[in-house]
Structure prediction request, 322 residues.
Amino acid sequence: MKLSDNQLLTIYREMNLVRAVEERIDQLISQGEITGTTHLGIGHEAIIVGINQALKKTDYFNLTHRMHGLTVLRGDINKFFAEIHGREEGYCKGRGGSTHMIDMEHGNVGCNGIIGSAIPVNVGMALALKMKKTKDIILCSFGDGTLNEGAVHEGFNLAAIWDLPIVFLCENNQYAMSTPLKDAFKIEDFSIRAQSYGFPGYRIDGNKVEEVIDTLESAMEHARSGKGPVFIVAETYRYKGHSKSDMQKYRTKEEVKEWMKSDPILYVESILNEKKLITAEKKEAILSSVKKEVEDAVQYAQACAFPSKDTLLDYVFIEPVC
Prediction:
């Protein structure tokens, strides 16, 4: 697809905002300002922004644990950072943190740390959308480590036989925690698995934002028109570890540097330079604006109150003991 000049500039700012959010979270972790497990998506920006560009306002989506950026782009950055800080003003009143954030107002059905669990849940939501006869779809995103879970087979098969309005998106960042692809798969192109369920599968360069948007829009139209699910595998790479405790002994610095040559932000910047749409001054203005937006949200969050101890058990399901 051909992106307009305004689209390119919007995408460039969004990608820099997503990265700035992740880098600030990384700083906050190291400073001890936020606690709990955190998974950074630095390097995934083209996929995150591509999803944001392709989704309609009434569509739904679930998040992998690396989708901080999409929560920010689709919702409220102040509420996001308040949740990250465990504050009452957060999306989940400080109880969800980085990994369990939900924002139904903006279509974010949330995520959790159980690998593969989102697939059947999202298939259920897709069934609800079909039963309500809406034209909305749900995007179900997950990592390559999810693909060998049994819930994937069950969810894919149900979505296929019921022609459900769902797009499955695998963000293949080459490692499931510390497990390289070659140790977990006999095939190189995971998208061919879709054929066995009877729906389309595509493998794309997840670092080229226009390819992400184009493929997602086509897939969403396919699902929206009643033709059933689509499976997309977007090849990308995470620059940081799986989580904050990851020592990254399973890969080399040279490998990371090699992938950085395909950085999604630099790719868009090269297009902007080629089209003479950006100058050094304009780039600095964008980066300064993004930095201020993030810092203002952090300051807002840190000024918010923690939940009261009296509400410790509120919003928590407690199963009675018989």
User: Anything to note?
Assistant: The CA atoms of residues 4 and 309 lie 51 Å apart. DSSP finds ten helices and seven strands in the chain. The first strand starts at residue 60 and ends at 62. Strands lie at 60-62, 138-143, 166-172, 175-176, 179-180, 201-205, 230-235.
